[in-house]
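Illustration 12: Carboxypeptidase M14A.
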Amino acid sequence: MKLFAFLPFLAPLVSAAAISSAEKPITYDGYKVFRIDTHGRARGAVIEKMLQGLKAVQYNYDTDTNIEIAVAPEDLGKFERMRLDFEVLDEDLGASIRAEGGFHPGGEQRFASSLNQLRPGAFPDESWFRAYHSFNDHQQWLVDIQAGFPENSELIEVGKSFEGRIITALHLWGKDGKDAHKAVYWHGTVHAREWISTMVVEYNTYQIITNYLKNDTTITKVLDSYDFYILPVVNPDGFAHTQTGDRLWRKNRLKHPSSSCIGTDMNRNWPYKWETTGGSSTSPCSETFRGLSAGNTDEITALVKFSEKLAAKNGIKSYIDWHSFSQLILLPYGYSCNEHVPNYERQMELARGVASAIKQVRKTTFTPGETCPDLYKAVGGSTDWMQDVGKAEISWCIELHPSGGGANGFILPASQIEPAAKDLWAGMLYLLPTM
Ligand SMILES: [Zn+2]
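Figure caption equivalent — predicted structure in C-alpha cell form:
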C-alpha cells in the first residue's frame, strides 16, 4: 500500500502500461447481456440485490422498469435459476467488442506528457468518423485540426489525470478574437466506456471548423458570437483503460488508500451537493463511488478550476456533458427530484427544439427531461455544478445512442458513429443559432 503514495509523483515519468501491468485484461468472451423486467421500483431493488451475487457488470442504475446487465459465462446457470423475466440483448459480448474494433487487450499505452511533444500532421478528413481510436490518436487529432485553423483556435492543457495524461481543451473563436464572448462548453467521455460521446463531440467540432472555413453563413454567425471550449476526453486514464484493459470501465483510475478497488465516478465527484445521500456511493468498489471528499480527484480539481475561469471571464452560455446511452436530453437537477432550474421553461423549450431537429434526420427519438425524475438521483454531477455554481444559462447532459431498446448499449458498432453524429449535429444546428 505504501507504494501507492509515490505513484502520483512517478506517474508523469512512466507509462500507464507499467502502472497497471498487474491487472489482466478482460475480453468479455462468453458474457451474455440481458434486459430484466423489474416491474416497479420495489421489485427492482430486490432484483438488483440478487444480481450482486453474480460476476457481472450492470449497465444502468434506473432500475424501476428494467436492469441491463452483462453476466459472466461461469454464472449464467446461476442467473437462469433466478427465474427472472428477461430477454437476451447480446449472445456474446466479447464477440461484439471485437467486431467494434477499438479494443486491444494488453496493448501499448504510452502517451505524451505535454502537448508540445506532438507535431501536427495533415488536416483530418471524415474517414476519422468511421472507426474508434486510441487516446493518443485523439490527442493527435486535436493537434492536427487545431493546426488547420491556426488564426481562430488554440489548445489548452486544462490539467493532468491521475496517471499523468493531458486533459486537453480546444478553444475556438470568431472574428472578434479570443475571449470576447460567452462560452459554449462541451465535455466528452467522463464515463470511460461511453465511446460514442468522444466521436460525437469531435464530429460537431469538425463541422464547426470546416463550415467556418467554407464561410457557411449560419456557422460563421455562431462562431462569431461564442468562444467554444471543447474537451472530447475528460477522463483520459479511464478511456485508455477501456481500450487495453476493460472495455466496460466507467470510472477514473484513482487508487484508494485502503481498498483494492480502483476508480472514482467523476460524475459523482463535483463539489456541489456532493454530500447529499442517495445519489452516489461511499463504497470504493461501486461504479458510482463519489470519492473520499468533494472534488478530490485530479481530473475534477482541474476541470472545476477551468470551469470557474470560464464562468468568471465572460460566463457560460451553454454546457453539455456528452454521455451514452438512452437518447435523452437531461436538464438539472440530479441532486433533487423536486427542484427545477430557475429558467426551466426556456431550457425545456430549447431541448424540445433539439429533439425535433434530431427527429427530422432519420426519425430518431431523443426525449427531453430532468435528471432526477427522468433518469435517476445522481449527486456530485457536472450539470448541477454548471447550473448553480458556474451559472450556465443552459446546462445539459445528453445521453447518446442507442435508446436501449434491444440495441448495443455501450458497444455501438463503428458503422453507427456517423449516423449518430449527424443526428446530433442537426440538433446543434438548431441549438447554437437559437439559444
Ligand atoms: Zn455516463
